[in-house]
Amino acid sequence: MKDLLGRDEAVKVNEARELFLKQNLREPEAESVSIDDSYGRVLSREITSPEDLPGFNRSTMDGFAVHSADTFGASDTMPVYLEVKGQVLMGEKPRISVQRGEAVQIPTGGMLPAGSDSVVMFEYTNMVDGSIVEVMKTLSPNENIIRADEDVKKGEMVFQGGRRLRPQDVGALAGLGILEVDVFKKPVVSIIGTGDEVVPPDKPLSIGKVRDINSYNLAGLIAGCNAVPLKKGIIKDDLQKLRNAVKESISQSDMVLITGGSSVGTKDYTAQVIDELGEPGVLFHGVAMKPGKPLIGGIVNGVPLFGLPGHPAAITVSFETFIDPLLMRMSGERPFLHIPSRRKLKALFSRNLASSTGREEHIRVSVEKRNGALWAVPVLGKSGLVRTLVQADGIVIIPMTKSGIYEGEEVEVRLFK
């Protein structure tokens, strides 16, 4: 079925996503990096522990290391008395052991001396004199201690392949003495700006010209996905120049984003170039969503290409909807579908807002707190207005089957990064 401009009918958002999921993309390559450079990187293989952690029995409290059997029946009214034989120093192996009826003073994190199996907290003790401690609590074996292999056992899998490393994960690697890890290389994404009217931001404007906003917006969005943006400059509306730029970008990167040139005009060559450069070519041209309907999606020899609309709001919505999840797949990350995204929150919609059925509408919203509740306030305006993005905290999606949202209706806000 063709639309009024002779194009195929716009595909639904979920159908457009499915088209990409069915395609064979380039497999991400792996590399070894220092853990200093591993933050936010995706592991290419599982990691097992080379040793027990912490590697020795240690105290979790300041107190006295004792044999738990010596405290049996101890209470406030019936304490037991133990002989203090010395103290454990931090970072050193104890030179003394605990015999029955004895105690050794120990700090939090100190190594448990031989013969002891628990630690009584200072709060449950009193020093009778310099060598006798009064214990007023019955202890169980292993109370207030961490065993040598309680945190991690040698040979145990610590991380699965496909996990994106967080700061605490890198800290765990350091604690295990793992200084290098195998990770997938970051996807490289080429950004090609197009249009005779677009000039770099350092150039003065003349009548009919606009500064390049989209390349900078996209570079930040790409970097926020732990991918590498590669700006290829602004290409004038010339078919051969665009073809050369896209061909070069395919050889240098894992994805190509072309801004502008997705609508139907005499100088809009994006779809033609994608079809000419390799298989399978254009997968769709036009998506049933607002903003972003003119979006082009294609694959050339395993490399995804997108022809993005020229309006900044449409670019951001298209990126969040299609490119962000695709970059996750291309980075090798294994998604945890059972864990809700921290980039989503529930809020009440601030006004009645009508929508046309038959297309998925993405409404830019700011989030406000009123009387203890979160409210999603629409930031209305044309998709070419930069302020609608600057003022927005995220988007609310109106499904294509709904005709709008009522004031006070609970909605899901997808927060921008």
Computed over alpha carbons, the radius of gyration is 31 Å
Uncertain residue segments = 1-6
Put simply, the count of helices is: 7
The amount of helix comes to: 10-25%
Name of the CATH architecture of the largest domain: 3-Layer(aba) Sandwich
- What is the name of the CATH class of the largest domain? Alpha Beta
N/C terminus separation: 37 Å
User: Could you say which structural class the secondary elements and strand pairing correspond to?
Assistant: alpha/beta
Question: What does it look like?
Answer:
With 417 residues, this protein is of the alpha/beta class. It folds into 4 domains: 13-28 and 186-330, Molybdenum Cofactor Biosythetic Enzyme, Chain A (3-Layer(aba) Sandwich), CATH 3.40.980; 32-53 and 152-184, Molybdopterin biosynthesis moea protein, domain 2; 58-146, Molybdopterin biosynthesis moeA protein, domain 3, CATH 2.170.190.11; 344-415, Beta-clip. Helices cover 18% and strands 31% of the residues. The protein is built from 7 helices and 28 strands. The protein has helices spanning 13-21, 167-175, 214-224, 239-252, 270-277, 312-330, 387-390; strands at residues 30-34, 47-48, 58-59, 63-66, 80-87, 102-106, 118-121, 125-127, 132-135, 145-146, 157-159, 180-184, 188-194, 198-199, 210-211, 228-235, 255-259, 280-285, 289-290, 296-300, 303-308, 344-349, 353-354, 360-370, 373-378, 394-398, 404-405, 410-415. It has a 6-stranded mixed β-sheet with strand order 7-4-6-5-9-8, with no helix packed on it. The protein has a 6-stranded mixed β-sheet with strand order 16-13-17-21-20-18, sandwiched between helices. Strands 22-25-24-26-28 form a 5-stranded mixed beta barrel. The longest helix has 19 residues, at 312-330. The radius of gyration is 31 Å and the shape is elongated. The chain starts with 12 loop residues before the first helix and ends with a strand. The model is unreliable at 1-6 (pLDDT under 50).
